Protein backbone atom coordinates (compact mmCIF):
# COMPACT_ATOMS: atom_id res chain seq x y z
CA UNK A 1 0.00 0.00 0.00
CA UNK A 2 1.20 3.49 -0.89
CA UNK A 3 0.23 6.97 0.32
CA UNK A 4 0.01 9.84 -2.16
CA UNK A 5 0.24 13.30 -0.54
CA UNK A 6 -1.11 16.34 -2.41
CA UNK A 7 -1.53 20.02 -1.52
CA UNK A 8 -4.24 22.30 -2.91
CA UNK A 9 -6.44 25.30 -2.06
CA UNK A 10 -9.36 24.31 0.19
CA UNK A 11 -11.92 25.15 -2.49
CA UNK A 12 -10.28 22.60 -4.84
CA UNK A 13 -10.27 19.72 -2.35
CA UNK A 14 -13.68 18.36 -3.34
CA UNK A 15 -12.87 18.16 -7.05
CA UNK A 16 -9.39 16.77 -6.39
CA UNK A 17 -10.84 14.11 -4.08
CA UNK A 18 -13.22 13.04 -6.85
CA UNK A 19 -10.28 12.67 -9.23
CA UNK A 20 -8.41 10.55 -6.67
CA UNK A 21 -11.40 8.22 -6.27
CA UNK A 22 -11.58 7.90 -10.07
CA UNK A 23 -7.89 6.91 -10.13
CA UNK A 24 -8.64 4.04 -7.73
CA UNK A 25 -7.88 5.42 -4.28
CA UNK A 26 -8.94 3.08 -1.48
CA UNK A 27 -9.14 5.89 1.08
CA UNK A 28 -8.67 9.65 1.36
CA UNK A 29 -7.81 11.82 4.37
CA UNK A 30 -8.00 15.63 4.38
CA UNK A 31 -5.95 17.89 6.68
CA UNK A 32 -6.23 21.69 6.87
CA UNK A 33 -3.10 23.77 6.28
CA UNK A 34 -2.42 27.47 6.90
CA UNK A 35 -3.47 29.96 4.25
CA UNK A 36 -6.78 28.30 3.26
CA UNK A 37 -4.96 25.27 1.87
CA UNK A 38 -5.23 21.59 2.64
CA UNK A 39 -3.32 18.35 2.29
CA UNK A 40 -4.96 15.27 0.83
CA UNK A 41 -3.56 11.85 1.62
CA UNK A 42 -4.83 9.08 -0.66
CA UNK A 43 -3.99 5.37 -0.48
CA UNK A 44 -3.29 3.27 -3.57
CA UNK A 45 -2.25 -0.32 -4.20
CA UNK A 46 -0.16 0.74 -7.20
CA UNK A 47 1.49 4.21 -7.38
CA UNK A 48 2.45 3.96 -11.07
CA UNK A 49 1.83 7.22 -12.90
CA UNK A 50 0.44 9.09 -9.91
CA UNK A 51 3.31 11.57 -9.64
CA UNK A 52 2.82 12.57 -13.28
CA UNK A 53 -0.99 12.57 -13.07
CA UNK A 54 -1.06 14.95 -10.08
CA UNK A 55 2.11 16.94 -10.81
CA UNK A 56 0.45 20.38 -10.21
CA UNK A 57 -0.29 19.46 -6.58
CA UNK A 58 3.22 18.88 -5.21
CA UNK A 59 2.80 15.09 -5.10
CA UNK A 60 4.77 12.88 -2.74
CA UNK A 61 4.52 9.09 -2.40
CA UNK A 62 5.39 6.99 0.64
CA UNK A 63 5.21 3.22 1.11
CA UNK A 64 2.91 2.18 3.98
CA UNK A 65 2.56 -0.78 6.24
CA UNK A 66 -0.54 -2.89 5.79
CA UNK A 67 -3.61 -1.19 7.25
CA UNK A 68 -6.83 -2.67 8.61
CA UNK A 69 -9.09 -0.24 6.75
CA UNK A 70 -12.26 -1.10 8.60
CA UNK A 71 -10.63 -0.58 11.98
CA UNK A 72 -8.82 2.56 10.85
CA UNK A 73 -12.05 4.03 9.52
CA UNK A 74 -13.91 3.34 12.74
CA UNK A 75 -11.16 4.93 14.81
CA UNK A 76 -11.15 8.00 12.56
CA UNK A 77 -14.88 8.68 12.94
CA UNK A 78 -15.69 9.43 16.55
CA UNK A 79 -19.04 10.86 17.78
CA UNK A 80 -19.19 14.60 18.38
CA UNK A 81 -21.70 17.30 19.30
CA UNK A 82 -22.89 20.15 17.09
CA UNK A 83 -24.76 23.18 18.40
CA UNK A 84 -26.98 22.66 21.41
CA UNK A 85 -29.08 19.75 20.17
CA UNK A 86 -27.31 17.44 17.74
CA UNK A 87 -25.04 14.47 18.41
CA UNK A 88 -23.35 13.08 15.30
CA UNK A 89 -22.35 9.43 15.52
CA UNK A 90 -21.14 6.96 12.88
CA UNK A 91 -23.53 4.16 12.03
CA UNK A 92 -21.52 1.54 13.93
CA UNK A 93 -21.35 3.54 17.18
CA UNK A 94 -23.29 1.90 20.02
CA UNK A 95 -22.66 4.46 22.78
CA UNK A 96 -25.79 6.08 24.26
CA UNK A 97 -26.86 9.49 22.99
CA UNK A 98 -26.08 12.21 25.55
CA UNK A 99 -29.04 13.53 27.51
CA UNK A 100 -30.76 16.42 25.75
CA UNK A 101 -29.22 15.59 22.36
CA UNK A 102 -30.73 14.18 19.17
CA UNK A 103 -28.73 11.48 17.45
CA UNK A 104 -27.84 12.19 13.82
CA UNK A 105 -26.34 9.10 12.22
CA UNK A 106 -23.48 9.69 9.81
CA UNK A 107 -22.47 7.24 7.09
CA UNK A 108 -18.77 7.64 6.24
CA UNK A 109 -18.02 6.81 2.64
CA UNK A 110 -16.94 8.30 -0.66
CA UNK A 111 -19.60 11.02 -0.88
CA UNK A 112 -19.09 14.24 1.01
CA UNK A 113 -21.37 15.17 3.87
CA UNK A 114 -20.36 13.30 7.02
CA UNK A 115 -20.48 16.37 9.24
CA UNK A 116 -16.70 16.56 9.49
CA UNK A 117 -16.29 19.58 7.19
CA UNK A 118 -16.70 23.05 8.76
CA UNK A 119 -19.22 24.11 6.09
CA UNK A 120 -21.47 21.15 6.91
CA UNK A 121 -21.22 21.92 10.62
CA UNK A 122 -22.17 25.53 9.95
CA UNK A 123 -25.27 24.42 8.05
CA UNK A 124 -26.25 22.14 10.94
CA UNK A 125 -25.85 24.96 13.45
CA UNK A 126 -27.87 27.31 11.26
CA UNK A 127 -30.66 24.75 10.83
CA UNK A 128 -30.88 24.34 14.59
CA UNK A 129 -31.17 28.10 15.12
CA UNK A 130 -33.34 29.16 12.18
CA UNK A 131 -35.56 26.28 11.09
CA UNK A 132 -39.18 27.54 11.32
CA UNK A 133 -41.67 25.27 13.13
CA UNK A 134 -43.19 22.57 10.90
CA UNK A 135 -41.27 23.94 7.91
CA UNK A 136 -41.05 22.54 4.39
CA UNK A 137 -37.33 22.23 3.61
CA UNK A 138 -35.38 21.74 0.38
CA UNK A 139 -31.71 20.71 0.40
CA UNK A 140 -30.03 21.73 -2.88
CA UNK A 141 -26.97 19.56 -3.49
CA UNK A 142 -28.15 16.92 -1.05
CA UNK A 143 -24.95 14.85 -1.05
CA UNK A 144 -25.27 12.11 1.57
CA UNK A 145 -28.57 13.50 2.90
CA UNK A 146 -27.10 14.60 6.24
CA UNK A 147 -28.74 18.04 6.18
CA UNK A 148 -32.08 16.47 5.22
CA UNK A 149 -31.83 14.08 8.15
CA UNK A 150 -30.94 16.93 10.50
CA UNK A 151 -33.89 19.04 9.33
CA UNK A 152 -36.25 16.11 9.94
CA UNK A 153 -34.84 15.57 13.44
CA UNK A 154 -35.17 19.27 14.21
CA UNK A 155 -38.88 19.31 13.43
CA UNK A 156 -39.37 20.01 9.72
CA UNK A 157 -42.77 18.91 8.45
CA UNK A 158 -41.50 17.82 5.04
CA UNK A 159 -37.93 17.54 3.72
CA UNK A 160 -36.83 17.04 0.13
CA UNK A 161 -33.46 17.10 -1.57
CA UNK A 162 -32.02 17.35 -5.06
CA UNK A 163 -28.58 16.88 -6.57
CA UNK A 164 -27.37 16.93 -10.16
CA UNK A 165 -25.15 13.91 -9.39
CA UNK A 166 -27.13 10.68 -9.56
CA UNK A 167 -24.56 8.81 -7.46
CA UNK A 168 -25.02 11.30 -4.63
CA UNK A 169 -28.79 10.90 -4.76
CA UNK A 170 -28.40 7.12 -4.57
CA UNK A 171 -26.25 7.53 -1.45
CA UNK A 172 -28.71 9.96 0.14
CA UNK A 173 -31.65 7.66 -0.64
CA UNK A 174 -29.93 4.69 0.96
CA UNK A 175 -28.83 6.63 4.03
CA UNK A 176 -32.25 8.13 4.69
CA UNK A 177 -33.93 4.74 4.32
CA UNK A 178 -31.41 3.22 6.72
CA UNK A 179 -32.18 5.95 9.24
CA UNK A 180 -35.92 5.37 8.94
CA UNK A 181 -36.55 8.74 7.27
CA UNK A 182 -38.59 9.42 4.10
CA UNK A 183 -36.14 9.51 1.15
CA UNK A 184 -37.72 12.38 -0.80
CA UNK A 185 -34.80 12.94 -3.16
CA UNK A 186 -34.43 13.36 -6.90
CA UNK A 187 -31.64 13.78 -9.43
CA UNK A 188 -32.06 17.21 -10.95
CA UNK A 189 -32.16 20.90 -10.17
CA UNK A 190 -34.48 23.42 -8.53
CA UNK A 191 -36.19 23.91 -11.90
CA UNK A 192 -38.29 20.87 -11.01
CA UNK A 193 -39.56 22.53 -7.81
CA UNK A 194 -42.75 24.60 -7.69
CA UNK A 195 -42.39 28.35 -7.02
CA UNK A 196 -42.69 29.47 -3.38
CA UNK A 197 -43.18 25.87 -2.27
CA UNK A 198 -40.58 25.64 0.52
CA UNK A 199 -40.14 27.59 3.74
CA UNK A 200 -36.39 27.06 4.02
CA UNK A 201 -33.79 26.22 1.40
CA UNK A 202 -30.36 24.99 2.48
CA UNK A 203 -27.45 24.60 0.06
CA UNK A 204 -23.88 23.63 0.92
CA UNK A 205 -22.14 24.21 -2.41
CA UNK A 206 -19.58 26.62 -3.89
CA UNK A 207 -20.02 30.38 -4.28
CA UNK A 208 -20.14 30.32 -8.09
CA UNK A 209 -23.10 27.94 -8.03
CA UNK A 210 -24.86 30.02 -5.36
CA UNK A 211 -24.54 33.09 -7.58
CA UNK A 212 -25.83 31.22 -10.62
CA UNK A 213 -28.83 29.86 -8.70
CA UNK A 214 -29.73 33.04 -6.80
CA UNK A 215 -32.88 33.70 -8.84
CA UNK A 216 -33.94 30.06 -8.47
CA UNK A 217 -33.43 30.18 -4.70
CA UNK A 218 -35.64 33.25 -4.50
CA UNK A 219 -38.29 31.67 -6.72
CA UNK A 220 -38.50 28.47 -4.68
CA UNK A 221 -38.00 29.65 -1.07
CA UNK A 222 -40.64 31.69 0.69
CA UNK A 223 -38.82 32.64 3.88
CA UNK A 224 -35.28 31.52 4.66
CA UNK A 225 -32.01 30.59 2.95
CA UNK A 226 -29.05 28.85 4.58
CA UNK A 227 -26.08 29.03 2.22
CA UNK A 228 -22.59 27.64 2.87
CA UNK A 229 -19.77 25.76 1.18
CA UNK A 230 -17.47 28.73 0.49
CA UNK A 231 -14.62 30.56 2.32
CA UNK A 232 -15.09 33.98 3.88
CA UNK A 233 -13.51 35.80 0.93
CA UNK A 234 -16.50 34.79 -1.23
CA UNK A 235 -19.20 35.70 1.29
CA UNK A 236 -19.75 39.18 -0.14
CA UNK A 237 -20.45 37.82 -3.61
CA UNK A 238 -23.05 35.38 -2.35
CA UNK A 239 -24.71 37.94 -0.12
CA UNK A 240 -24.90 40.51 -2.92
CA UNK A 241 -26.45 37.96 -5.28
CA UNK A 242 -29.31 37.34 -2.84
CA UNK A 243 -29.86 40.99 -1.86
CA UNK A 244 -31.01 41.63 -5.40
CA UNK A 245 -33.81 39.09 -4.92
CA UNK A 246 -35.41 40.43 -1.76
CA UNK A 247 -33.45 38.49 0.87
CA UNK A 248 -31.76 40.31 3.75
CA UNK A 249 -28.81 38.97 5.73
CA UNK A 250 -29.92 37.76 9.17
CA UNK A 251 -26.71 36.12 10.41
CA UNK A 252 -23.20 35.22 9.33
CA UNK A 253 -21.63 32.17 11.00
CA UNK A 254 -17.93 31.39 10.55
CA UNK A 255 -15.67 28.46 11.31
CA UNK A 256 -12.07 27.90 10.17
CA UNK A 257 -12.30 30.42 7.31
CA UNK A 258 -15.60 28.91 6.10
CA UNK A 259 -18.84 30.89 6.14
CA UNK A 260 -22.57 30.26 6.34
CA UNK A 261 -25.05 33.01 5.43
CA UNK A 262 -28.57 32.98 6.82
CA UNK A 263 -30.91 35.20 4.81
CA UNK A 264 -34.60 35.98 5.30
CA UNK A 265 -37.31 37.37 3.06
CA UNK A 266 -39.09 39.62 5.52
CA UNK A 267 -42.07 40.09 3.20
CA UNK A 268 -42.91 36.39 3.50
CA UNK A 269 -42.06 35.85 7.18
From TrEMBL:
- GO BP annotation list: methylation
The UniProt keywords, alphabetically, are:
Methyltransferase, Ribonucleoprotein, Ribosomal protein, Transferase
Please give the name of this protein.
Answer: 50S ribosomal protein L11 methyltransferase
Name the domain of life.
Answer: Bacteria
The record's listing under CDD domains reads: AdoMet_MTases
* Keyword Transferase recorded: yes
Pfam families this protein is in?
PrmA (PF06325)
Which organism is this entry from?
A: Paludibaculum fermentans
On whether Ribosomal protein is a keyword of this UniProt record, the answer is: yes
Molecular function in Gene Ontology: protein methyltransferase activity
GO cellular component terms attached to this protein's record: ribosome
Amino acid sequence: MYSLFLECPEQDAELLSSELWEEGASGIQEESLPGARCQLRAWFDDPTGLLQRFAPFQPRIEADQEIDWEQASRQAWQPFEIGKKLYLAPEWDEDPTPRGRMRLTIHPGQALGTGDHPATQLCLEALEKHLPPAAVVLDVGAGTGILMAAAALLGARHVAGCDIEYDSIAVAYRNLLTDGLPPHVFAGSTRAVRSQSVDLLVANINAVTHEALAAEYARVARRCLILSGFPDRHAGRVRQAMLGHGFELAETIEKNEWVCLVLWNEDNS
